[in-house]
Hints:
By secondary structure, the chain is mostly helical. The chain has helices at about 5-10, 10-20, 45-55, 60-75. Bound molecules: protoporphyrin IX containing FE.
Amino acid sequence: MLDGIGSLRSEQWLRDYLSSPNPQAILPSRLKKQYQMPSYARMSDADRAVLVQYMAGLKVKDWYLADTKKAEYEKLTGMEYKK
Ligand code: HEM
């Protein structure tokens, strides 16, 4: 669910996440390996820059974000979300 990702994550975070050889080191996942976010470390820097720009532009209103953050965090980690 990447709707509003530009409100949830900074441009730098997105760049790091899409550069990491192991994205789960940045965002832990409880999904089985085959369903986890794959590494985009081998993508070209030019492609990554365009993608990061685009995703950083996906913004939503604050009220929507609060609920989304909680739901996404709890779904991904299985842990309770604390502000
Ligand atoms: C260029 C293509 C892709 C982009 C730009 C992208 C972007 C992202 C971003 C920004 C997040 C973090 C969301 C957050 O902060 O909550 C994420 C998470 C995730 N992505 Fe992707 N993604 C891509 C391709 C894929 C593919 C191909 C898969 C599955 C085969 C996938 C599966 C996941 C999963 C499961 C997560 C949650 C974290 C985890 O369980 O590892 N993504 N993705």
